[in-house]
Design a protein that fits this description.
This protein is 31% helix and 26% strand. It has helices at 2-15, 33-45, 58-67, 78-90, 111-116, 120-131, 145-152, 157-167, 175-196, 289-296, 316-319, 327-330; strands spanning 23-29, 50-56, 93-98, 136-141, 200-205, 208-214, 224-226, 232-234, 242-244, 246-256, 261-263, 266-268, 272-276, 279-284, 305-310, 336-340, 366-370, 377-381, 387-392, 395-396. β11 and β12 (266-268) form a beta hairpin. The chain is globular.
Amino acid sequence: MAAIDDYARLVVRVGVGVRAGQDVLVDAQIDHAPFVRAVVEEAYRAGAHHVDVEYRDPWVRRAMVAEASDDAFGYSPPGLLARMEHAKETGAAVIAVSGGSNADVYEGLDPARLARARMPAVEESWLEAVNDRKVAWTIVAYPTEGWARETLGAPDVDRLWTAVAHAMRLDQPDPAAAWSERLDELEARARAMTERRFDAMRYRGPGTELEVGLIRGARWMAGRHETADGHRHVANMPTEEVFTSPHRLRADGTVRSTFPLALRGGMVEGLELRLSGGEIVEARAAKGEDILRAELEIDEGARRLGELALVDVSSRVGETDLVFRNTLFDENAASHIAFGAGLSWTVERVPDEQRDGEALNVSQTHVDFMVGAPDVEVDGVEPGGAAVPLLRDGVWQLA
C-alpha cells in the first residue's frame, strides 16, 4: 500500500533519521502491525543494525486492571526497563506508534485502578532519555477501525487516512521537503518568541483567565530536535507548535480545556483547573475526573506546569476540522499546556540554579491538554507589564 510505504519512509528518514548501524525500537499496538512491518523494512533499508518491536494489546491491559492483585500495580518489568536503558546507552532511535484511546476496551473498569496501571520506572527512564537527549525519537499515529470509530463515529478508515495524510503532508509531491519548509517556519516563530524575552504568557477565554510566568533565559523551540551527539530528529509527527517550559512557581488563575483528553485508556472531558503559586489547587472534569485526579497524585511535580505550546490556524491538523481524540494530533490542532515534567532542552542556556527543582518542573508524568480555540486570546507579557498579542481568532500575530 503506497500510503503506508510513504508514511513509513517519512517516519524513518525524517522522523528519526535512522543512521547506518543504529538500533531502532518500535512501540505499537497489535492493530498497527501493517504499518510497523513497513517501518521495519524501511529502517533496515536505511541501515539499521537491529529493529526491536514491542507490541501492546489493550485487552491484555484490561485483564490486568480487572483481575491483577494490588501489588501488580506500579510494577516495571525488568526486561522493558533494560530495553530502554540499552537504548539510552547505545543512542538508539525510538519510534512510538499511537492511535485511538481504546476507551471502549476499558469501559466499566475502576478508574482508580486504571490510572494506577503504569510502569513508573520505565516511564522515568523514558523521560530521562528524552530530557538528556540520549535517543532520537518520534511519536506518530496509524489509522485503524477503532480509532476511526472514536474520531468519526464510524469505522471509516479511508476517511481517517485522508485526514492523517493531510496532517502528515503525505499529499504533497515531496513530503520530506514540505516538512522541511514547515519546520523552518516554526523555528522562525520560536526564534522571534525567544528574542522578545517575554516574562509571562496570558490566556483569556471562556472559563480561562490564566497568567503563567516564564523562566528567564529559557528558549522557545519547534519540532526539530537534536540528540546530545548531534542526531537530528522530529519528536512529534505531525508537529505544528512552538513551545517552552514555564516557571514552576508562577501560574495563577483558571483554565478550561477545549478538546477531550485521552489519558491512560480513559477520556477526560470538560477539564477545568485552578492554579495558585504555580500549583494546581483545584481540578474538575465533566468526565474522567477520577483518572485526572490519579494522574495529579503521581508526585508533587504533577500539580505544576511543564510546558506551554502555541498553535495557530495554519496547522494542517486543524485544517481537517476533526477532534481526533488522540493527543498527538489534537495538541497540534490547538494551543496546549502540560502539567508535569518540564523540558530540559528549553533551559540549556539557563544557569544551573534555575533548572531542576527551582524554575524547571520535575515529575514522572507529562500530560498535554488543549486550551486553544478561536475565542481564546493569548498574549505575551513583557517584563514591564505590557501585553503583546500573540493569537487572535487563532491567527498568529507576532511578526
